[in-house]
Amino acid sequence: MNIPAKSFAQIFNSGFWEGQQLLTDGTLQTDDGTTFRIHRVVLSQRSRYFRALFSFNLTQEPIVIKNTDHEILESILLYIYTGDAILDEKNALDLMIASDYLLLDDLLENCRSFAIQNMTCTNCLSSLSVAWQIEKLAIRDDCYRYALVHFEDILKTTDGGLEELPFEILKKLLESKSLNVISERSVWKAIVKWTETDSSSRLPRASTFNLLQTGRRS
């Protein structure tokens, strides 16, 4: 049984990549200064982003991968070199964003599958907010349907993310005829909860919800 490496450096200690660190020909760096020595040809084979990057950037200076945490970049490198994606609820969304940016379609699909299988009333709206920004993640529709069906339960959670939800997403949810609520009171409760988080800027927008044509019970 193969045990996934806990760090990128460990893959060079045994197995297929043993000793291959001596042949690295590039360096990736995160915003916090963490660096990783890499083989350009390996990354180019797995990612169209890196293939394009290394085709034009021939310098030996470290290449900074912006807006990517060093732990996320390390997880991505582990996946590129070993095929092992170590996913959990804490890193799945960040890995999803990074794999989309770095054009790692297979890892992106793994993250999507993980997020769907582990979707709950607590993390559904945060996943929806992320997916809303990156349409091709495809997970957006899954999160949206989950939120519609489980909206009453989401509303009951103290950390469901309703207060941080962007206006356009909340509006689409609340105005949907498919929203599964006991009565319209639940909808108004959601509006009040969302508005009270920042009443000065949100109160004018709260009045724009169109709930009269939903056909739901009051």
Automatic annotation (TrEMBL):
InterPro entries: BACK (IPR011705), BTB/POZ_dom (IPR000210), SKP1/BTB/POZ_sf (IPR011333)
Location of the BTB domain: 24-89
Residues in the signal sequence: none
Record-linked SUPFAM superfamilies: POZ domain
Pfam families the UniProt entry points to: BACK (PF07707), BTB (PF00651)
Designated name of the protein: BTB domain-containing protein
The species this protein was found in: Araneus ventricosus
Organism placement in taxonomy: Eukaryota, Metazoa, Ecdysozoa, Arthropoda, Chelicerata
